[in-house]
Amino acid sequence: MNNPFLALPYVPALESLGAEYYDEVTAAQFPQQILRFRNDDLLPRLGLDPAQVTDENFIQAFGQFAGRMPLLALRYHGYQFGEYNPRLGDGRGFLYGQVQGTDGELYDLGTKGSGTTPYSRSADGRLTLKGGIREVLAAEALQAQGVYTSRCLSLIETGEQLWRGDEPSPTRASVMVRFSRSHIRFGTFERFLYLERPDLTQKLLDHVIEQYYPHLQRESDRYALFYAELVQRVARLCAQWMAVGFCHGVLNTDNMSVTGESFDYGPYAFITHYDPTFTAAYFDHYRRYCFGNQPGICHLNLELLQRPLALVIPQAEMESGLADFAETYTRAYQARMLEKMGLPPEPSPQAEELCMSLLRWLEESKQDYHEFFVDLSENFSPAWFTDIDRIPDPTQPGPFLTLFMNWKTRYHQQLMKLSIPDRHLVPHRLKQNPTTVLVRPQIEAIWEAISQQDDWEPFYDLLNRLRAIVYAPLKL
Ligand code: AMP
Ligand code: MG
Fold first, then answer.
1. 47-61, pLDDT tens digit by residue?
2. Which terminus of the chain, N or C, has less C-beta within 10 A?
3. Rounded to two decimals, what is the model's pTM?
């Protein structure tokens, strides 16, 4: 079989840890395989030339699973909405394979919707087509906004009909392949505390450090350093989510990666206006994972992770690692918010007040969060540096003008203080605010075209628009 995906130099990194970490499973056979999305952006990282890879190659490898069985359903537990659940594990996904990328990093190809496993419980092991589309879009939107995220390598419609309580049913089915740094979760470690297996904890920790934190490998206190770095990575990830207005929706510990990468996009949503109570998952009745709770929940999940890691790492060292969460988070959040306002990402007490005044106005006025920054970009004039009156007031002033003026005064003060080179960068920074945001109406519109007319053009068009503005930190 001359399929470049089958000829990839797979490395059995996780498999070589032993059978305690997974179950061998086989994928379902699907009545149809229609390739709906292939992520050619990722192929060079696998050492492949997109022009040399056919749609048929994708279908054979990731719709028919030819030549790569059995695959691995990974074992894990997790805290779900605060309750410990020992009956988890890959219920509809497998680790398809691991590959060393051309950048030297190890990547997982993981499936979603590929059939049942010992962890499916009473569920069908499938992924709805809409769910697959939603994950493709979330990953590409977050990637374009500079968020450290898993991606989707392919999405194949499978011709099955699924019944779901939260979609008009029957609904269409798909199988997705996720391209991620790792599928090892906080919950993978939690399972070993439950099983009372410090030996398996240590083995997995050594593996995680070797593969994902190699710069720590030679340090005598590498375990504590790993935990401290994970805290930093998660704090920075969460800051990016908050600044781009992303609400993950289900921050259970089985959806948190030990690499600090964002992944597993279920009922997520991008906010439309700044509302800390906004809750993405309809089943999150107590707003546990609402937008504004994300930093607190990330902190809590890191704290919970100390319990299983305490089998190997001294508790006091982890506590001092966790103590840095708040400062790392705040600095990263402020830096990104400053950039969104066109300013250099240098946190300061004045910058903090500027951000707070902005959030207060955005929250009270319910002004569109994303439009606000695009308007700044479109209206920007160098006259703003000298004349505060040239910064336009909202078109519909409303009762919140005082809050707006409070922000505008502080904003103007920051603009006045900028060096000449920083002044030149203001329009460039402002232009990095996305003009297309993956808010729910966008997704519903493309899904309507697909479900009503099988028209995929709006989906591809939306993908292109989401990818059009790519965030990259600007340096002088
Ligand atoms: P999630 O909320 O998607 O992170 O999934 C939580 C757990 O439920 C994981 O163990 C999943 O593998 C499992 N799961 C979710 N949906 C399905 C399904 N349709 N069939 C089997 N298992 C599922
Ligand atoms: Mg999950």
1. 999 999 999 999 999
2. C
3. 0.97
